[in-house]
Amino acid sequence: MDTTLPTGRRRLLQGAAGIAAGLAAPAVHAQGAVTLRYVGTAVNQHAGIKEKVKEDLGITLEYIPVTSDDVVRRAVTQPNSLDILDAEYWMLKKIIPSGNLMGMDANRIKLVNEISTVFTKGEVAGKKIGDQGTAPIKVSYLPTKDGKTFATGQTQWLTLIPTTYNADTLGIRPDRVGRPIESWAELLNPEFKGKASILNIPSIGIMDAAMAVEAMGRHKYADKGNMTRAEIDLTMRVLTEAKRAGQFRAFWKDFNESVNLMASGETVIQSMWSPAVTAVRSRGIPCTYQPLKEGYRAWAAGFGLPKTLSGRKLDAAYDFINWFLSGWAGAFLNRQGYYSAVLSTAQKSMQPFEWDFWMMGKPAAQDIKAPDGTVMEKAGSVRDGGSFEARMGAVACWNAVMDENDYMVRKWNEFIAA
Amino acid sequence: MSSSPPDRRPMGRPVAPLLQAAPLALVLLLFFVFPLLATAVVSLWNYTEYSLVPDVTQRNYVEMFEGCSNLGEGLCTTFRTYLSTLRLCAMVWAFTTLFGFAISYFLAFHIRSDTMRMALFLVCTAPFLTSNVIRMISWLPLLGREGVVNQFLISTGVVDQPQDWLLFSDFSVVLAFVHLYTLFVTVPVFNSMMRIDRRLLEAAQDAGASGWQTLWHVVIPLTKPGLVIGSIFVIVLVMGDFVTIGVMGGQQIASIGKVIQVQMSYLQFPAAAAQAVVLLGLVLLVIAVMTRLIDIRREL
To answer: Which residues form the signal peptide (chain A) (predicted)?
Structure first.
């Protein structure tokens, strides 16, 4: 992407806006602008959000994009190197016991009661959704501000304030598959020998494998996100058999690899992330984010605050989070196919036809455009999987850290070596 | 600097050379010896999901070699991983040595003019001005199922099905490595060859040696130091690699580097440190054997 020129100009404008805002709001700027160091994966770190925050709040966000592994590593080993942590909920099982995150005070979050019931009750439209794995409802609350364990019910102290979440499934090339795909079992179907792929991120890869194993009827897991050793052995055995039989063309580790595998025709069915499917489609190559009858593997991310944060930075962080929930950012993220925490405010910031397409699963009344103006979906198309209720309501399990994580990682290495 | 005579300590040892060596010694101590020691120490620590526990435990080594004594059920993960890494390493070493030697031989003995020789040598190094990741990734669109090579093979009727072994296989990994590392052999071998006294070759010819005999009895023995140095480069680079094997092997081929990377990403630093210590030991052993066979310092 070529951003050199616009950035320069943008900086200039930001500077000018900062000066103007400084004159208008001396109370905020009297002590100099606050800068918040924002550590997270690049998923939510958009230049658009950064500009808007600067404009609306006068707060400068310093994006520090790292891999999801590094998010955990930073939070556990260097909590002083950040002011805002954009973490996924499964990471909390590693981060919270370190005591490096504070419980966020619900009284300081204005829209706390508006946060999606996915997080507060584990429900969508009054219906319980799958909670296997590290479901956000299990790790959203702390018993006290300094808690190192999770509370069972709702409390005043929140671990993360949700930013984005989504339901993941398999991506397929409908032109190459040539028939309807309805089940996770197809991932291991010999029909697609040498044309399938899963991700080489052990904790997520094994859950996709578990969805397939269960769909094939080989085992019913009590909790796919927290397997026993015997279940790990079984799952890895099935995967190893498939690998030795040449089922997998390759494993992928990052977003771009998954896009290239699919776009170049190396694979026709693989675990995938929603924006990667969009990326393949934007090259003019047909790709479907296929809803499957066994349901989705979901994930969720949110903002956490390091315990060391205090004073003006803490206030600024709460201001930023409140701003994030107030609609503009939510609409921004919804338009990319993610879901935002407070849907009611996001709806107000979206055009009705956008809301109908992204959230209601209705055919697009007009072309759906990306933030940069390129057409993502033509008028008349329907979102894969349909509405928010249809997609999030069909969640089967959540990205997770297992109790037997060590063992699982060793078994995964064994599988790669097999 | 003043040119006063060096101070003499009571024992009569000059201080100046020690002072002169001190900066390098300090740098090595700080950035080489200390991290290495730290790795060795951490490899004995215990760990949990979210913390390192300073301790003296054999856990990391025990878990690494778990099941390795029982050969009845096939090789354990660690042995299999090392075997896979060593196998790739051997193939890459063989090809880079062959090509590196051939290229150097051509440059050193077949090109007559010095200007031409230097020009061609620079041409060899030109691809290395781009990032090695880019050089590696550019193979993907060539070798893929619908890539250039397969399209060519199918259109010319050599094959009727796209060839899957071209990519995400041992072949593609070795190909990328050879592409990346041949220069590391070419340079030291070329250097050794340029130092060979041409009169030796003439003498061999006068004594009635054939071209092959000259190559085998004169050129190769005299280029051994270059070959060993090049081999050390290649072996060290391949043994520790996880990016090339990962990308070109479709993440399906085991390598020690990958195992270490996975463990690091799951905050299992002590386990990764233990793997690193074993890997280091093995590589040092290989290098020790090679330098025992040929005394590089004497030959230089």
So the answer is: 1-30
Looking only at the bridges linking them, the beta strands covering A84-88 and A296-304 are: antiparallel
| Cβ–Cβ under 8 Å, residues A145 and A102 | yes
Any domain includes A12: no
- CB within 8 Å: B266 and A410: no
Of all residues in chain A, what percent carry a pLDDT higher than 90? 75
Q: In chain B, which residues have their Cβ closer than 8 Å to the Cβ of A251? A: 250-252
pLDDT band at B300 (very low <50, low <70, confident <90, very high): low
Q: Which two tokens stand for residue A262?
A: 């699919």
Whether residue A288 is predicted with pLDDT greater than 70 in this model: the reply is: yes
**Is the distance from CB of A44 to CB of A322 less than 8 angstroms?**
no
Q: How far is A197 from chain B (nearest CA, A)?
A: 10
- A279 lies in the same domain as A318: no
Whether A331 and A322 have beta carbons less than 8 Å apart is answered as no
Query: Nearest-CA distance from B222 to chain A in Å?
Result: 40
The first and second tokens of residue B155, run together, are 């259109």
A283 and A402 inside one domain: yes
Q: Has residue A330 been placed in a domain?
A: no
Smallest CA–CA distance from A71 into chain B, residue: B265
Per-residue model confidence as pLDDT tens digits over A229-262: 999 999 999 999 999 999 999 999 888 889 999 9
Q: Do A264 and B266 touch (CB under 8 A)?
A: no
Q: Which residues in A lie closer than 8 A to residue B77 (C-beta atoms)?
A: 410, 413-414, 417
In residues, how long is chain B?
300
Phi-psi region of A373 (alpha: psi -120 to 50; beta: other; left: phi over 0): left
Q: Are residues A87 and A186 in the same domain?
A: no
Residues A65 and A153 in one domain: yes
In angstroms, the Cα distances linking A204 to A101, A136, A162, B287 are 24, 16, 20, 39
Phi and psi at residue A377, in whole multiples of 5°? -135, 135
Question: Is A393's pLDDT higher than 90?
Answer: yes
**Model confidence pLDDT, tens digit, residues B262-282:** 888 888 899 999 999 999 999
The closest CB to that of A251, out of B77, B147, B250, belongs to B250
Interface contact B63-A410, CB threshold 8 A: yes
Which range of residues forms the domain containing residue A100? 33-159+298-325
What does the alpha-carbon distance between residue A266 and residue B147 come to, in Å, rounded to a whole number?
10
CATH for A130: 3.40.190.10
pLDDT digit string (tens) for A12-34? Answer: 444 444 444 444 444 444 456 89
Q: What is the pTM of this model?
A: 0.81
CB contact under 8 A, B250 and A264: no
Tell me, yes or no, whether A172 and A272 share the same domain: yes
Number of domains in chain A: 2
Asked if A84 and A141 sit in the same domain, the reply is: yes
pLDDT in tens, A331-375: 998 988 899 999 999 999 999 999 999 999 999 999 988 777 778
A265 with B144: Cβ contact below 8 A: yes
A405 CB neighbours in chain B (<8 A) are 49, 266
What's the pLDDT score for residue B235? Answer: 94
Asked if B251 is an interface residue toward chain A (Cβ–Cβ < 8 A), one would say yes
By residue count, chain A amounts to: 418
Q: Which of A76, A200, A417 sits opposite B267 (nearest CB)?
A: A76
**B267: chain A residues, CB-CB within 8 Å:** 72-73, 76, 94
Distance between terminal CA atoms of chain A?
39
Tell me if A251 and B251 make a contact (CB, 8 A cut-off). yes
Kindly report the nearest CA distance between residue A126 and chain B, in angstroms: 35
